Amino acid sequence: MSINHNLPVLLDINSTLFPPTSMALIEPNGLLAFGGDLSMERLISAYQHGVFPWYSDGEPIMWWSPTPRSVIFVNQYKAAKSLKKLSRKNLFELKHNMAFNEVIRSCANINRKEQNGTWITEEMILAYEQLHQLGVAHSFECWQENHLVGGLYGIIIDKVFFGESMFSNVSNSSKLAFMYSVEYCQQQGIELIDCQVESDHMNSLGAINISRNEFEKLLKELINK
Questions:
Q1: Same-domain check for residues 52 and 92
Q2: Among 48, 67, 130, 163, which has the highest number of CB atoms less than 10 A from its own CB?
C-alpha cells in the first residue's frame, strides 16, 4: 500500500486492507484510495470500514469515505402518509430478492438528471451479483402487473444496510420499495441505513448527516467482524 498524505492511496492488490479513513481527501467527497480489485473479500472489508467503490468506465477503481455521511436510523424512519395511503391501495406488489440482477441493471441504465452516464459498470454488476449469491447483497422491488417498475439494492452486514442505488419507472415505485426495505430492516433488527452522500431525494425519505467519526463508531457497534 503506497501512502502519500496529499494524494489518494494506491491499494496493494495482494491485501484487502484500507488506509485510515482520516486520510481521505475532503474534496471531492472523501476520495480515499484507488486501485485494488472488486473481490468479495475486499468489498466486504470496505463496507465494514465505511468505504465504498464509485468510479466510471475507463477509470481506476476509486474508493470513498465521505464526511459528512448521509444515514437513516431505522427506528426514526416515518413513511409519508401519502406513501402509506398508496401502499394500502394494493396497486403494487413489494418483493425481496426476486430479481436482483434486473434491479442492479435497471439502476445502471436509468437516466439521472444530475449525472452523465453511470458509475455502475459491468465489472461492478458482476461483483455485486456474486455478493448477492453469497447472501450479502439484497434487492427490494416494486412490481406492477408482474412487471418490475422500481427498486433498490445494497449490502447488508449484521445490523447495517448499505444502500447503493435505486431506480423508478413508475411514480413513487422506488419510494415504496424503500419503505419495504425499512420494514425488512425493522424485522431483522437492522438499525442503520447508509445513504452515503447527501441528496435531496434521500433527505426527502428522512436521511440526515452525521460525521465520519460518528458513522464509524456506529459501524464498530453494529457490525460483528
A1: no
A2: 163
Three-class SS string for 31-52?
EEEEECCCCHHHHHHHHHCCCE
List the beta strands (DSSP E) in the chain. Answer: 9-11, 31-35, 52-53, 62-64, 69-73, 93-96, 137-144, 147-157, 160-168, 192-196, 208-210
43-89 per-position pLDDT tens digit: 999 999 999 999 988 899 999 999 999 999 999 999 999 999 999 99
CATH number at residue 32: 3.30.70.3550
| pTM greater than 0.85 | yes
Q: Which domain holds residue 126?
A: 70-222
Question: Are 103 and 83 in the same domain?
Answer: yes
**92 and 17 fall within a common domain:** no
Q: How far apart are CA 143 and CA 91, in angstroms?
A: 9
